[in-house]
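Posted in: Protein Modeling Q&A

I'm a second-year student putting together a small comparison for a lab meeting, and my supervisor asked me to include a predicted structure for Hydroxybutyrate-dimer hydrolase. I've never done this before, so apologies if this is the wrong subforum. The sequence is pasted below exactly as I got it from our records. If anyone can share the structure token output, I'd also love a short note on what stands out.
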Amino acid sequence: MHAPDFVRGEVRETEHRQGDDLLSAGLGLDGLAGAPSPIAHALHPTPAELRRRAIQASWKGIADLGPLGGYGRVYGGVPDVPGREYQAFAWIPEAHAPHRVLLQVPDNFDRARRCLVVTASSGSRGIYGAIALAGAWGLPRGCAVAYTDKGAGSGYFDLSDDSGVALDGTRAKRGSTTLEFEPAADTGGTNVAVKHAHSGDNPEADWGRHVLQAAQFGLAMLDRAFPDQAPFTAQNTRIIATGLSNGGGAVLQAAGLDDGHLLAGVVALEPNVRVPDQGRALFDYATDASIWLPCALADARFHATPMARTPQGDVPPRWAQRCHQLQERNLVSGTRVAAQAAEAHEHLRASGWTDEAMATAASTTSLDLWRAITVAYASAYMRRGPDDMPCGFRYGGVSDAGISIPVDGAARASWWADASGIPPGSGVGLFGGADRHSADPTLPGVLCLRSLWEDTEASTQPLRDSVAATAVKPPRPSLPLWVVHGASDGLLPTSFTSEPYVTWLRSKGGHPLYWKVPYAQHFDAFLTIPGFGDQHVPLLPYGYAALDRLWSHIYEGASWPALVPTPSPRPRGSSALAREALDLPPAWTQAPR
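Accepted answer (user: helix_wrangler)
Welcome! Here is the predicted structure, written out as tokens:
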């Protein structure tokens, strides 16, 4: 069976059985939650070792696998699912770089009720970046699962030795094989190039096409896996799209582009979605937050907020310094931190932030994620290379002390498995855009990033044009579609994303279901942080429940509801999570969970 025309190069087929399954690469739940899977020879990991680490890193980045979180006991599970994988590089017309596509076909594939789940990675993660949602729900049920990294991923290119990532995840030199990403050959320097930031594309504008290509790839590979059952089509194989965060935005983009009626239903969790002329674009509110949130969180109302105070209960000195710097620039007028913080808080409130979203954004702010995200997105939107990033930023090797050093060979060898898709991390640092002599060294860089959005110069217009190109289109009104979002999301607040989308869709005759889940926030994985999990609930179980309901509609004839009651969960506090605390609806199906 032939691969689709948009696939260039080989399709890599591998079998995963007897201690090396599809869902956990043989690690099981305890192994996924444990120490990083070992690599025998750090400079030369095998494809199998890299795959196992990539799956483990994706699980740890998305799910709450902590002992109090309840995964595998209260909801979810990690059964042994043997099967096959098919992986390739796919190309959007006129793209400079491919996106990776992968199909997992379980041995227990249900031929009587053909099911293909299609998904896109969260954040900028690699190809397994949605396995904790789509794989965990679909594979035990007998569905095949098709993935795309949607033009991002962890195929970093090291300019110092001219190497990138091959299809099997190992390092390879430019020209020796097809690579996941390689910058222009005349790019100089010793920086690290990242596909999302430096491909020369605006991958976010094509997320929907990436998802639809992954679905088409999945059908084609099912033909290859079961030639006696071919052809697999959208008419005889139901295709369910699901994703979270950027992956949630990707499946909503795909729904709006699905003129061929490939998709049978969509469940989007905490989507990074933008509709025309409503809500706020991520780059807009993230650059604003990177300037103002450190000071706003110094306000007394956030005294008990996890990660908003030092262990001694004080305002972090760098946040107090941000307040002082805002006053120096006449952005606030108060003379003391308390007054300055109150003004910063009011600025964010006036721009649409809620106190609830600000409180959970203390984690994002403490970890400096706003700056990391907006640097990468600015470079992607402006189509800059690794030596020409906006505002003087660059990526390169970094020591544990944060000092610029040559790239570590062992870290580089496992980038594909360990990296998140946006530095810093995995031995790659974010440098530049700072004033080392300032008491607040990161402020000049974030002010520069904000100016890219606010000014009207022709040189920055490509950024605003690229952001405009990411707006979604409405799906067909008959498509079953469910949006699930945490009320406490501090990275992609509902007031900027899901709520404008649902309102807009209903104004166009659509009938989306919407759960705004109390106490749920963006990162289930953060629930292992002391004090953080006490105050929040995981979002994944509500995504699984929505998918269960969609399954019962598609395969068991259950009616698609006009609305569904929003659950009323309660945080677990200092105890282990109990199922009744989630207030999940009664089971809609008898499928394994």
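A couple of things worth pointing out for your meeting: The chain is about 30% helix and 15% strand. The radius of gyration is 23 Å.
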